[in-house]
Amino acid sequence: MSVPPPRAALMRDRNFAWLMSGSVLSALGDQFSMLALPWLVLKLTGDPLALGMVVALMGIPRAVLILFGGALVDRYSPKRVLMLTKYVNALLLGVLALLVLRGEATLPIVTALALGLSLASAFSIPAGTSMLPHAISPQHLQAANGTLMSIRQVTMLAGPLLAGLLFALAGDGSHGMQDARGLGLAFGFDAFSFVLSAWTLAKVKPLPRPAGQAAPQRQPLLRSVGAGIAAVWRDATLRTAFLYWGLCSCVVGGILQVALPLLASNRLHGASALALLAGSQGAGSLAGMALSGLIGRRRIGNLGVTLLLLDGVIGLMLPLLGMISASWQGAAVTAAIGVLGGFVNVTVYTWVQQRVPQAMLGRTMSIFMFVVMGLTPLSAAAAGWLADWLPLGVLFTGAGLFLAAAALLAWLLTPMRALTDAGPVVAPAPRVT
Predict the structure, then answer these.
(1) Is residue 328 part of a domain?
(2) Which end of the chain is more exposed for a tag (fewer CB within 10 A), N or C?
(3) 387: domain range?
């Protein structure tokens, strides 16, 4: 009897079917809110500084608490943590949708609800990244990861385009908050997606603990977080890579969170243009992820040189966004950036997964997200302040030159250029305490 291909066997796995359906629903809803929330703040205030401050207030608590989220995931069931966050998100988004539809949304209330969403994500992110190994057999993990990441990228394409259509048909607040019905419906759809994805997650039955693997001991939370940080810090290669990626994400990501909505508002055609930019980047990311699967481990020199070279090219592309005057031009640039970024993201994520023992995965991924997101909110707040004084073109050019310079300096001065693809972890996993 022939053995079915891994992907065919994966698709018959009921756990994966439920996880995949929930991932589609939740990721699609997220795209609606990711566009609607910054646009709502911008329409309520008309102030780039206010937008930057709201982004900062959302990001800072999430970045700090995500370390504790990873420790809780390693201690308890990822399913339990993820389920709780889905219910919290559904409630907060439902309230936000109702306020916008009734025309009662104000900046303090929106900020408070956004802060609640940020706090919930501090626990949902490490829970979500740790869920698959608890529900899918080890031989199917690679195929499952690739499928779910591709699905998320499809939603990054479809979600913004659907959201843009909704904004265009139902109103995006450009003519006052009485014309913001599309924003309220976007938040309502995201709330509904969380309820449905919680239902699908409830159908997932975690795999039994492998024979001989003891249950984790209940160590004090701070000590557990410290053990994870110490493990990452002792790995010089992992430490260097995390710091480099964190620095680049801090500066470039923070600026883009403010600059792209301003670009759509000031030069293009409103929220629908912002949706087109995000959708084009999602399409490019999907193509980049597919390219990553096609070429495998073919590199320009080695992994480190390849990643730094692609970062440099992305840095040189960013100033082009400051020169555009039409939506199609921005879509072309963001699509090209998305291709390179998608390739980099899959490669980095796979490298971390293969390098870290499963018992430390929750904490390691939370540390990685902390490094990547920790200072980004401060950068966004600074970008909002700078946007009051500098032209958009200068912001995009500054972000691009910083990324290109960081990649060059990392190649010259750090071990990043010697980074190689990690093989699967074969050493016994350390005891989870």
Answers:
(1) yes
(2) N
(3) 13-204+221-418
